[in-house]
């Protein structure tokens, strides 16, 4: 099958689904002749059939607009849910335990535990490649987290582990921006059950930079074999590999789908490795440029303001 990347881009008619073929961006609906292909969510809701027609379109001679002159938006504008895996790299779990003065924890598999996720709120949390993210006034300890993000392409309920990756349409890059000082409510005792505030910690406008595109899963047969890196102002902070995940993506899909039906367009952030700011301690400030890279996918860059 011909290679392409799936994007949402700004057009004179508004946001449109596009295909990046080489260094060109072409309207997906124009190439396939399917009106539903005007949005990435529309494509994902028909992914079983859509992936074949997109691949056929990518193999044809096309003339689009230059990628360099195209404003890319977040690849999915309206995900019904963004699930985020917590403490899912062994090195990151260890560094956070050290930072908080806790002893290292054993592998959760040995304790019979399952993956653990929290939620980001959806559209308002998204930021696109090249966007500026406002952090001043939100947090004094804003942190970075490079993450492999999987995009669901078929409704998934009670999915067996061996079939879990069949439900993934593709992959993109995510930055799980985290307002560390907002995660614990002031004036609430540390022992209180309502001490933690995951909404304030993980949800604010632009808290989930995503992009720059979706690489179809056919081009990434094994999501556990990808390098990933993050730089702040060209200084490398995270440098790891998805093989270091505690719970694989397949395990995460199996577990999430046992609790709720995953929908086309849902996004799963699979966790971040060691190297976050909280462990240094060192945090983002206005003017910082954060660059994330994942092997076989590409680079996502944002400026903080």
Q: The CATH topology of the largest domain, please?
A: Fumarylacetoacetate hydrolase, domain 2
Number of strands: 19
| CATH hierarchy class name of the largest domain | Alpha Beta
Query: What is the average per-residue confidence, as pLDDT, rounded to a whole number?
Result: 95
CATH superfamily of the largest domain: Fumarylacetoacetase-like, C-terminal domain
Radius of gyration: 19 Å
Sheet-strand content, in percent, reads 25-35%
Keywords:
single chain, alpha+beta, Fumarylacetoacetate hydrolase, domain 2, 2 domains, seven-stranded mixed sheet
Structure, explained:
- There is one protein chain.
- β15 and β16 (235-241) form a beta hairpin.
- The protein folds into two domains: 5-73, no CATH class; 82-304, Fumarylacetoacetase-like, C-terminal domain (Fumarylacetoacetate hydrolase, domain 2, Alpha-Beta Complex), CATH 3.90.850.
- Helix content is 16%, strand content 30%.
- The chain is built from six helices and 19 strands.
- The longest helix has 12 residues, at 47-58.
